[in-house]
Write the structure tokens for this entry.
Amino acid sequence: GVAEKDIDISLSDDQLTISGEKKSEETKEGETFHISERCFGSFSRSLKLPYKPEEKQISASFKDGILKVIIPRPTTLK
């Protein structure tokens, strides 16, 4: 329910934060009625990673409404 343009991903040291805003609008009309509903709200989720990732190796993709973030473990930890 969230568009790619409404999502923000940030990394500060070992703290990954994904935030965004959900917006939706629905209108229904009939012969004797007109209904317009709007839903919106912001969200934010943060998680502490068990290591400090190498920023150049992080990748993110958004396809079919699914956000995929890949954060490889640094080679020094393997």
Strands lie at 7-12, 15-29, 34-48, 59-63, 66-70. The two ends are 37 Å apart (CA to CA). The longest strand covers residues 15-29.
